[in-house]
Specification:
GO terms for molecular function: glycosyltransferase activity. It comes from Forsythia ovata. Its EC number is 2.4.1.-. Helix 14 packs across helix 19 and helix 19 packs across helix 20. The strands form two sheets. The protein has a seven-stranded parallel β-sheet with strand order 3-2-1-4-5-6-7, with helices on both faces. The chain has 21 helices and 13 strands. The two termini are about 25 Å apart. Helices cover about 45% and strands about 15% of the residues. Helix 11 links the parallel strand 6 and strand 7. By secondary structure, the protein is of the alpha/beta class. The protein binds uridine-5'-diphosphate-2-deoxy-2-fluoro-alpha-D-glucose. Uridine-5'-diphosphate-2-deoxy-2-fluoro-alpha-D-glucose binds next to helix 16 and helix 17.
Length: about 450
């Protein structure tokens, strides 16, 4: 079949950013199968290796871009920010180099760029080539909205004084009037443009309105007011998720079978699933607080905990809890949340985890750490009312037991369960044939097929 569109895809290789972008691309390939579109997926070797895990997909070719580290130089820092900094310093040259290679190999000029929204310079690359830029925001609409109001927020903080604004609400941001300044991401609260992450996101905010479309892995009905506001700010604002309900998920192979078998033996809605995503490990004191709460309350639990964090558990914890708990280094999270024995999810509030929890109707206990997570947890507790935050914001034995009781046993838990099930149904409706996310996805497909715009 003749290829008539060549889409260049630029991934941000940290946290859970590249995997949802690949999921989106796979869905675009499947839904456009007879229409001659090919995708070149530009990402670092390490991230490509992790998300493709040796699999090949028709019409998607992975290209490795330079991660910013010099040959023979191994990354020694434990801080992910350092790796991000090196990578960002190598952009956009590292991407431009492989884009040229892909054009030579396919014999076709790139006709549209689809990138992680963080990679704001894609706007300039697209402008130079006279082609559209479609940006993919991997987090929630609420955090995108908060970023879009950065200038107003900074101006208020400067005129009132940062300390005095902390408890003030974002009365001027549609759909976020109950959100306080102190719920906002650090990248908004600190106006320090010396920080590479703050600078990157600020530049993104300045470029996004030029994007032909801003795509989000969410559904309009979760935040109708925010959605309408963002529709007024962008040329096209397209909620196309939750992708796990509408797209083929990337395979994890057979890993995690053991914990799925274990879940099968547990009582309905009795198990606490615990995961802090791909980047975080809580401090030892908090690990101890959480472990003591689980042990004292004898709550059945499944904990996804990286091997290098096992040493942070209290001595003898594994032996003493082996009758009712299980720890794995990586869990098949979608299958876990789908399992009826899971009754609550203790989460760091990364957007993918929240969306997965909503999609399977599992109430959340929130312990946010950085970036958008604090704002997400505010929305979970106070706006969507589908979970609770911990008293004092950190894990302590008593605070965690209290949160577990309120979600698993009390009337609060019952209301939360009802709310999350209602939201789950809205998410399911959004991805039906005539649902909002499906319509938005079709619009996206049209846009990239005829790359001069919708
Ligand atoms: C960054 O998020 P994270 O990667 O830390 O966390 P999530 O967005 O929640 O995504 C974690 C994914 O990893 C999967 C899980 C999610 O899809 O199903 N997973 C799993 O399969 N098994 C495990 O044992 C543990 C996790 C960032 F830190 C957040 O603040 C952002 O919201 C997010 C999106 O931009 O990226």
């Amino acid at each position: 079949m003749a290829i008539h569109s060549h889409i260049g895809v630029l991934a941000f290789p940290f946290g859970t950013h590249a995997a949802p972008l690949l999921t989106l691309v796979r869905r675009l390939v499947i839904d456009s199968s007879s229409q001659g579109i090919t995708f070149s997926f530009f990402n670092t070797a390490k991230s490509n290796c992790a998300i493709f895990s040796g699999q090949e997909f028709d019409n998607i070719k992975a290209y490795d871009v330079w991660d910013g580290m010099h040959e023979g130089e191994a990354f020694t820092g434990s801080n992910i920010l350092e790796a991000m900094q090196l990578f960002l310093a190598a952009t956009p040259g590292n991407f431009e180099k492989v884009m040229k290679e892909a054009e030579v190999e396919t014999g076709m000029k790139i006709s549209c760029l689809l990138s992680d929204a963080f990679l704001w310079f894609t706007c300039d690359l697209a402008e130079e080539r006279g082609i559209p830029w479609v940006s993919f925001w991997t987090a929630a609409s609420c955090s995108l909205s908060a970023h879009m109001y950065t200038d107003q927020i900074w101006s208020l903080m400067r005129s009132t004084g940062a300390a005095k604004t902390e408890e003030k609400t974002l009365s001027f941001v549609p759909g976020m009037t109950s959100v306080r300044f102190s719920d906002l991401p650090e990248e908004i609260l600190s106006d320090n443009l010396e920080s590479p992450l703050t600078l990157m996101i600020y530049k993104m905010v300045q470029k996004l309105s030029k994007s032909t479309a801003v795509v989000v892995n969410s559904f309009e009905e979760i935040d109708p007011v925010i959605t309408n506001d963002l529709k007024s700010k962008f040329q096209n604002f397209l909620n196309i998720g939750p992708s796990i309900l509408s797209s083929p998920t990337l395979s994890n192979g057979d890993s995690g079978q053991e914990c799925l078998l274990w879940l099968e033996k547990q009582r309905h809605a009795s198990v606490i699933y615990i995961s802090f995503g791909t980047v975080i490990t809580p401090q030892p004191r908090e690990m101890a607080g959480l472990a003591e709460a689980l042990e004292t309350g004898e709550f059945p639990f499944l904990w996804s905990l990286r091997d290098n964090a096992m040493k942070l558990l209290p001595d003898g914890f594994l032996d003493r809890t082996s009758k009712f708990g299980m720890i794995v280094s990586w869990a098949p999270q979608l299958k876990v949340l789908e399992n009826p024995s899971v009754g609550a999810f203790i989460t760091h509030c990364g957007w993918n985890s929240i969306l997965e929890s909503i999609s399977f109707g599992v109430p959340m206990i929130c312990r946010p750490f950085f970036g958008d997570q604090n704002l997400n947890s505010k929305m979970v507790e106070d706006v969507w009312k589908i979970g609770v935050r911990l008293e004092g914001g950190v894990f302590t034995k008593n605070g965690t037991i209290e949160a577990l009781h309120s979600v698993m046993l009390n009337e609060t838990g019952k209301a939360i369960r009802e709310n999350i099930n209602k939201l789950k149904h809205k998410a399911q409706n959004a991805v039906k044939f005539d649902g909002t996310s499906t319509k938005n996805f079709r619009a996206l497909l049209e846009l990239i097929k005829s790359p001069r715009g919708i």
